Request: fold
Amino acid sequence: MSTRPSPSSPASAPEKVAAGPGRPKDLAKRAAILEAAERMFLKQGGYEGVSMDQIAAEAGVSKLTVYSHFGDKDTLFTEAVERYCEQQMPASVFETAPETPVRARLMEVAEAFFSMISSPEAVAGHRLLCTPQMVEKRLTQRFWKGGPERVQSAFAAMLRRRVETGDLDIEDALVPTAAAQFFSLLKGDLHQRLVFDCDDAGACARMRRAHLDASVDMFLRAYGRR
Reply:
């Protein structure tokens, strides 16, 4: 007579129960590694000054775990940049919000963008990208895809929706160009002052609102519906 347990028998339960906890634990480790990498790359040693051993120690995991999640240091750097940008400018920033006047909506995007690029971490990252080591490693291209390209693409989609609602007048082929122009206007001279150590932080802070207002107004003079 067969003694094989029935499908409802407890003998088959452990396999199903044991399979569950592993995944959340891996995701938690991945998040801890990214958080440690972002903090160390942008706030402490820069790219060259931080090792994978140090990131592993900061995250409380083994170096093998870091490599199993990200493969190499370049990939970890790229994903840390993506994480930072997604935190600072999540998808909700680019929602159409048709009930909000177009100028007010553009100002909301402008404020979020300038807060991101003017943070100490972003300023340090910008300086880091200008070093010869970063250019040689071609990480600047990976940074572009992980940060600015993603932001511009999301904003371009928002612009297209605002064109459809009649708030803006932009030829479809020119929408990516308009998106790039908007962010270039927002960076302007003020961002350069921050990168090169603005000698009067109070003055730079006071200039911020006027700078963003002027940038949004210039954009609307070019692309606003007349």
